[in-house]
Design a protein that fits this description.
By secondary structure, the protein is mainly β. Helices cover about 15% and strands about 50% of the residues. The protein is built from four helices and twelve strands, in the order ββαβββαβααββββββ. The longest helix is centred in the middle third of the chain and has 7 residues.
Amino acid sequence: MSKFISVGKILNFHGIKGEARVGFSKGQEDFILSLDKVFVQKNNEYLPLNLTQARLHKNFALMKFEGIDSVNEIMEYKGCVLFVEEDTIREKLEEDEFLIDELVGLSVFDTDDKKLGFVVGVSNNGANDLLSVKTNSKKICLVPFVKAIVVSVSIKDKKVVINNLEGLLE
């Protein structure tokens, strides 16, 4: 069975021809415009919606779906979360990009291979992603997910190596 990952939400209609105004995460403009099919969850089932057009308007995506040609038809989907299959996201990831659920739970080590803690979450401060690391002393510290600090990530070895700069993890 496919695993589905949310990528946006139908917030409202746009115009009278069945276009949807879709909210999505900042920085994902190229990804959202590259999609040709999304899924909505109704009655515990994922139903496919084929895109015929997608464009950006202000801070939203405007999406037109095959077979939905009026305000009344798109209103049926208002408030629905849009999903894509995990494989769709994986094939569009760059070499140094990861899914959040892949990072959560990974052990964090310094460059001397000393275990410092583990990743409990990922967030974004507007400038870059941040790893929430629970240290051996049970404190939660935020580590900027930038190449100068995060030396390597190995999903296979369940390991993140960081340059533990003075004051980063206390």
